[in-house]
Amino acid sequence: MRITCPLCGERDRREFYYVGDAVALNRPDPDAGDVVWDDYVHNRDNPAGVTRDLWYHESGCASWIVVTRNTITHEVLETALASDVKEATS
Amino acid sequence: MRVAGKGLVDCSKPLRFLFDGTSYQGFEGDTLASALLANDVKMVARSFKYHRPRGIVGAGSEEAGALVTVGSGAHQDPNVRATVQEIYEGLSAQSQNRWPSLGFDILSVNDLAAPFLGAGFYYKTFMWPKAFWEKLYEPVIRRSAGIGALSGLSNADRYEKAFAFCDLLVIGSGPSGLMAALTAARAGADVILCEEDSVFGGRLNGESLEIAETSGQDWGTAAIAELSSMDNVRLMSRTSVTGAYDQGTYGALERVSHHMTQAQGKPLETFWRIVAKRAILAAGAIERPVAFRNNDRPGIMTAAAVRTYLHRYGVAPGKAVTVFANNDDAHRTAKDLVAAGVHVAGVIDTRTDAPDGQGYPVYKGAEVCDSAGRRALESVSFRYADGRVDKLQTDCLAMSGGWNPTVHLTCHMNGRPKWDGSIQSFVPTEGMVAGLEAVGACNGAFSTHAALLQGNAAALTALGDLGLKTIAQDVPDAEDAPYRLKPLWAVKGKGRAWLDFQNDVTVKDVKMAAQENFRSVEHMKRYTTQGMAPDQGKNSNVAALAVLADATGRGIPETGTTTFRPPFVPVSIASLGAGAQGKGFAPERFTTSHTASVERGAPMIEAGLWYRPSYFPATGEKTWRESCDREVGYVRNAVGVCDVSTLGKIDIQGPDAGAFLDFVYTNMFSTLKVGRTRYGLMLREDGTVMDDGTTARLGESHYVMTTTTAAAGPVMRHLEYVKQCLRPDLDVNLVSVTEQWAQFAVAGPKSRDLLNGLLDTKIDNENWPFMACGTVSALGVEGRLFRISFSGEHAYEVAVPARYGDSLFRTLTSRAEAMGGGAYGMEALNVLRIEKGFITHSEIHGRTNAFDIGMERMVSQKKDCIGKTMSERPGLTDPEREQLVGVKPIGPVKQLTAGSFLFKSEDSAVRENAQGYMTSVGFSPEFGTFIGLGFLSNGRARHGEQMLMVDHLRDVVARVEICDPVFFDPEGGRVRG
After folding, report:
1. Phi first, then psi: what are they for B446, rounded to 5°?
2. Which CATH class is domain B489-569?
3. Best interface-test mutation with A: which of B864, B869, B870, B876 has the largest number of A CBs within 10 A?
4. Which of chain A's residues have a Cβ under 8 Å away from the Cβ of B245?
5. How many whole angstroms separate alpha carbon B946 and alpha carbon B885?
């Protein structure tokens, strides 16, 4: 599997550390309530199809990257710096 | 026997090799198979289950008969295909699965017992008595069935892994692959051409055919010469592409020195990961055998293999060769042999409209129905449609049931091939692997001309996709005969007819699977083990499912295929794991004091990948405890020195560094004064403790964080995550400096005296109080000094650039020794911190939170931080949770053990009654007894309670008293001294 790091270019997936769904970017407010926090910390979808994951370019530039990919076809559809994605949404 | 004037082997370079101890001669360029056939050695193996004599079936990597063991001792390599193994001077190969010898094999009695040994026999025959299965039946079956054996010794050979990148990967160098490579390379594309064989050319080397009015071999040689002269082409022979993976990644196994007497420093094998923007599969096709009674006798092989031995190796596999065919292609074998002066006994063709012979008889409309011969073929019987049976004396039968395209790689990403009735086989479904196109025989295009056209067309498509300029190519003229075939999978009749030679699966076995309702092809495979041998069914899959289709009354396309998975050929685990054997699996990280510690005789223990001294033995000490007690005494009474460089060090800078730390730590760091250090607690977002450590503020916007040794990597990753994913608004930068600084703890009442002997500006309690930090100059070297303590004593940590670490450690320890102290190791460090109730990852082990370790007040109420919200869930502050406590023995048994459980004195020591558990123990010289830390339900309210500590594994039962986790100097006066 190959992932395109926005800073380093296309690299082997062995350079990356996988953490899970990019929903982790959407950290709730401290007073958002138990349900919201429980959902944020524990609940993840497991779709057959398009997902957005967080990958860490640990053996590279140390960027956290939002990777949009298809779990059926294994296509990597888009990659973006997590900091850019976060700043654009907040 | 050799055929004069034929073959690509170098007759001027004879080589001697051994097979089962007998010495034979071959030539450079021979495989073990061709050299054995040249020496008229027909029987080379015993079969898997029935121990029947077996010979060489094919000439390629899909070989189903001739598996041998090469080498001996630690270099022993079992299940080597004789058709792939090139000979070299001194090669020694052994036959397998026979005892005492290949010729006389005791277990060949299995063949007589065949009626009882059909598919699944062990589930039926050996069911009773039940207890016999594990003790008797299975071991006996396992010993009698099988192929080669491992040496049992550690692998002594060297393996490599490598990476390559290209515009176009061409897999296979037959006519279609060569044409594709030429077209792409001439247009300037970066091309990698992989060929399994030691020479390029594929079928061109095994056939007598013309391309562009020259011989196919010569055309191929010229093409390779042109390709090898181009800088944008990489030619890789002896390299099997083993698998297709995501985003144009391909695995490939290069057999680097299997063909060499001495590796000359080269690895045995290299496993490649090739990343290709486009790929062309030109893998060719594999000729399929026909199932008939006794079709597994040595001397019976595929028709194309016979041609390969003739043209490529100059070997005739028999003196009187018979061809058995259902297609025109196989007639070439007879033609080529006759042209080379080899006697052809006849061609037996199932078709009444078969072509006439050219110097040999053709028996039309007949099927071979049996073979005879003791250890090798002596005659075949064939039957006409009217039932008349005739016999031919022959020592080699060249059979052909048609060709199966080598579709494997196109199916590696869950694709399924489609049935093509015109060739009676499966062909690739387009687009199953993105960027990969199949051409030539593996795409069902069997004529040479069609292969050249497809190779060229696919290369042009790839060039277009890559945005490269294309140059129109003339595709040379070549043979373009139609592929005429009448399907024949299994000749009807009594007796056993083999489908899978390697796993001894017969037509009967497949039919029995169907009878017993294992009708799905996947079930049939598992019931009979057909296709599960090293050749993975390359010789038998299509025929087996044709037989299954017939037995179940379905068509072949409805029956379908089993799943094709990587690897295409067997790949050694050693090559996949190259570089990760032994120490390569867990590289060693050494501190700057490593050499000095080893010189002092310290046993080194692993801490992750780091190595740290356990203790420093002194003359006369008999046990580690004596050393440990002495070292604890250094710190409590004089001064001890310990390398703490393995702790993670993260440099944090930027105007928002304080705000950032406030967010990752539970407590406040933005309020920390410059020149001061603070202990910090870090949580995971779920409220569990992640790590702890001290962070020093060296400047207004400059902090240095220390992490535990174990969590250095994960904490760095976490900090980057928080910075990039959660708080990109903060202006802060992080860098790991763990390896840049050598850091030593200097601990004990005389620590300041020791340091003042080194520091260029002396320190005192006023200018360098507890938790002070800053830059210092030690013996002219600029370093950092932190007044922090992990022992409860007046202590410092001094850091210098790593290149000064060795010298500073030696200086500190020798000066400490002069002051009645010295170096201390991990054992002493552990005792010192347990006496003070300081936690490590034994306590913050991933299931404890701030409340459990008694630090809930460290979670600041003035701000948000990672893990704060979730740590406030009611369940995480329930008093019944297991809380950190101290434990000391009060009964006759003084030993405490980590991992043991705590029980109420009146309860029986069973799991349901466990109230808590021990995490750390150590022998305290201060108290003259073991002390320990543990977690106990509602523990903080139970100080003074007497309990039982039970270690069921080590059989230790001790009466203990629960106490405060801080055993020593609870007021903390010593640290400020």
Report:
1. -90, -15
2. mainly alpha
3. B869
4. 1
5. 13
CB contact, 8 Å: B717 with chain A?
yes
In A1-90, DSSP assigns E strands to 2-5, 9-12, 17-21, 50-56, 64-70, 76-81
Question: Smallest Cβ distance to B725: which of A25, A30, A32?
Answer: A25
Domain ranges of chain B: 159-285+405-466, 489-569, 595-646+740-833, 650-734, 879-977
**What sign results for the dihedral spanned by CA atoms B814, B815, B818, B823?**
negative
Q: Using a CB–CB cutoff of 8 Å, tell me whether A35 touches chain B.
A: no
Q: Which DSSP state fits B751?
A: H
- Cα(B549)–Cα(B498) distance, rounded to whole angstroms? 17
pLDDT of the residue at B127? 63
Q: Does A80 touch chain B (CB under 8 A)?
A: no
Pairing of strands B22-28, B10-19: antiparallel
pLDDT of residue B15 exceeding 80, the answer is yes
pTM for the predicted model, two decimal places: 0.91
Architecture of the B159-285+405-466 domain? 3-Layer(bba) Sandwich (3.50)
Distance from CA of B563 to the nearest CA of A (A): 17
> What is the least distance, in Å, from the CA of B720 to any CA of chain A?
7
B275 touches chain A (CB under 8 A): yes
Query: Cβ(B823)–Cβ(B613) under 8 Å?
Result: yes
**Contact between B725 and A76 using a beta-carbon 8 Å cutoff:** no
- Please tell me the predicted confidence (pLDDT) of residue B900: 98
| Cross-strand pairs, B774 | B785
To the question of domain B879-977 being in CATH 2.40.160.20, the answer is: no
Q: Where are the domains of chain A?
A: 2-89
Q: Which CATH superfamily is domain B595-646+740-833 in?
A: Probable tRNA modification gtpase trme; domain 1 (3.30.1360.120)
| Residue in A closest to B729 by C-alpha | A87
Q: Are A56 and B729 inside 8 Å of each other by CB?
A: no
Strand boundaries in B201-261, DSSP class E:
210-211, 214-215, 233-236, 239-245, 249-255
Q: Is A45 on the interface with B (CB under 8 A)?
A: no
What confidence tens digit (pLDDT) does each residue in B669-688 have? 999 999 999 999 999 999 99
Residues B249-302: pLDDT tens digits?
999 999 999 999 988 899 999 999 999 999 999 999 999 999 999 999 999 999
Crossing angle of helices B521-528 and B541-552, rounded to 10°? 110
**Architecture in CATH for domain A2-89:** 2-Layer Sandwich (3.30)
Distance from CA of A60 to the nearest CA of B (A): 12
Contact across the interface for B728 and A83, Cβ inside 8 Å: yes
The rounded distance, in Å, linking the Cα atoms of B189 and B459 is 10
Whether residue B567 is preceded by a cis peptide bond, meaning omega within 30 degrees of 0, is: yes
CATH of B650-734, one of 3.30.70.1400, 3.40.50.1110, 1.20.1250.20, 3.30.70.920: 3.30.70.1400
* CA proximity to B269, closest of B532, B26, B85, B18: B85
**Does A75 lie at the interface with B, CB-CB under 8 angstroms?**
yes
Cβ contact, residue pair A56, B717, below 8 Å: yes
